[in-house]
What we know:
- The chain is mostly helical.
- It has helices at about 1-25, 35-105, 125-135, 140-150, 190-205, 205-215.
- It has six helices and no strands.
Amino acid sequence: MIRHAVRVASVVVLLAGLAGGAYLGEQRPPQTSGKIDTVAAEAADMQLMKVRENQHAAARARWTSAENTAAQKAATDVKAASGYAKDLDKSVAAAKKAAEQKKNSGPVAFAGTIPTSCNEFSGSRAVGCALTLSAGFGLDQFACLNKLWNKESGWNYRAENRSSGAYGIPQSLPGSKMASFGSDWKTNPATQIKWGLDYIKKRYDTPCGAWNHSVQYNNY
Length: 220
C-alpha cells in the first residue's frame, strides 16, 4: 500500500516537471540564428558604403565644378590680358609709325643763308629766293619762278598730283627724279628747289623762260 502511494507521488512529480518545462519553453523568446545576424550586418555595411560613395561623388563633383570655374576665369583673364597686350602693341606701333612719319615728313631745315634781299619772303619761298641767286639768276628771275611754282604747287614740298604722280615744289614727274640732288627729296624743300632750278636752266635757260612756256602751254 505504501509502495503504491510512492509510485503515484513519483508520477505526479514527473508530470508536474513536464508541465513546468513546457510552460517555461512557451515564455522564452525565440533565438535569432547567427546567419541572419551576419546578413543584416552586411546589408548595413553596404548601405554605409553607398552613403560614403555618394558623399565622395558629390565632393568630386563640387571640386570639378570649382576647377572648371577657375579654369574658365583663368582663360577669360588670359584672353583679356592678351587683348590688352595686342591693343598696347598696336598703340605703340602706331605711335612709332606716327613719330617716324613726322620725322620723315619734314620739312628739312635749310642749312644755308637767306640774303637780306630775300627778307620779304618766308619759308620755302625764302629758300627759293636764296637758291635762285646762288644759281646765278637775279631777283627778277625769282619773280618769275615765284609765279611758276605758286601755280604748280603753291610751294608745298609735299604737293602730289594723284593722277600724274608729279611731286614736290617743282612738280617733278616722277618725283624720284629729284633723288639725283639728294635722298631726302621727299622732305627737303632745298633739294627740290635745286633740282627744279637745274631742270629749268637746262630746258628753258631761265625761270622767266619757263614761266612764259607755262602761260602759253599750261605746263613747263
